[in-house]
Amino acid sequence: PHCTLVWDTWDCWNWTTPGDTLVQPCPWWVPQVNPNKDAMKTCMPDGTWFKHPDTNYTWTNYSNCGASQSTIHVAIFYTGYSVSVISLCLALFIFTYFQSLGCPRVTIHKNLFISFILSCISNITWHITIIASAESKQETACRITHIIAQFFVLCNYFWMLSEGLYLHTVIVVAVFSENHNLLLYYIVGWVIPLVPASVFLSLLLTQDGGRCWTNANEIEWVVGGTIIAVLLTNAALLLNIVRVLVTKLRATPSQGARTYVRAVRATIILLPLMGLHYIIVPVRPSDNHVAEVIYDCIVAFLISFQGLFVACIFCFFNGEVINKLHRSIRNFTLVHYSHNAHLNNAHGTDGPSDTQAE
């Protein structure tokens, strides 16, 4: 008997004599894999492929396929997502705790933060399940987390579009009036992303995208193309906002207009940061391994630290937030100092001093 020809969703393995271990280059088409290293699949003496003792499923040893340099950009991914989640949670707490900061624009900020938190967590989960699926049959869980991660990534950009739509409505349409319904923005941020995500899932189900659907680069542009369209739409809205603001400030300068200038400036700064990695995707080097690693590290940084950028620009660098924190810290310090002074005075009048006692 021989071990039969088999496709393990990452690579094809040929007929093999019992007792032999088949060695072949790691699949170059799988992301984060070094094709210069080797994968192994063992044919047991009874003519069956080796089964992993923990799962009792046939198993291929791809543990050596990760490039040693690739651990750098994987570490950047995990670090960036973790820092982003912590900073976004802190920003969300600040906006929730200080209710005086509450307004429709801050509500949109908070939903943007939530979408980024969910996106970071789902992407971390997906990376973990990719590693787990290489050693077991957790294919279903891996694919589900992949779709969830793509959906929340779409939500990030549609909530950024909501930021632009809100500013455009307030500045261009309603002339600095913030009294309008936020239902439209909830639909844009949470409901509309279901459409491209569903199309993406439908296309994935019609073909084999490899293990965890990591070999579905052409279909990925359903998500990528949607994001680029959203970014271009947002850019057009912001350009129109800038045009109107400049006109209004030249005609009748006002404090309200200057407040929105800061809001528009923050959104304009964030927009290229969120879209830069889609612009540089076509220039990915393919014939220089060192250049590939550098490219992967840059993309990993831009993607994983987006949440930190969002938290800094919309919260930590926000003048209103900074003033509110300064006042709170000052008030806390004064209250704490007054309380200690009161205790010290009370302690000093409780009884006679040492000199009087003598």
UniProtKB/TrEMBL annotation:
Protein name (record): Putative calcitonin gene-related peptide type 1 receptor isoform X3
Lineage, opening ranks: Eukaryota, Metazoa, Echinodermata, Eleutherozoa, Echinozoa
Keyword Cell membrane: yes
Subcellular locations according to the entry: Cell membrane
Cellular component terms per the entry's GO annotation: plasma membrane
Family from the record: Belongs to the G-protein coupled receptor 2 family.
GO molecular function: G protein-coupled peptide receptor activity
Cited InterPro entries: GPCR_2, GPCR_2-like_7TM, GPCR_2_extracell_dom_sf, GPCR_2_extracellular_dom, GPCR_2_secretin-like, GPCR_2_secretin-like_CS
PROSITE patterns, alphabetized: G_PROTEIN_RECEP_F2_1, G_PROTEIN_RECEP_F2_3, G_PROTEIN_RECEP_F2_4
Keywords recorded for this protein, A-Z: Cell membrane, G-protein coupled receptor, Glycoprotein, Membrane, Receptor, Transducer, Transmembrane, Transmembrane helix
Cited Pfam families: 7tm_2, HRM
Lipid bilayer topology: Multi-pass membrane protein
Segments traversing the membrane: 76-99, 111-131, 151-176, 183-201, 221-242, 263-281, 293-317
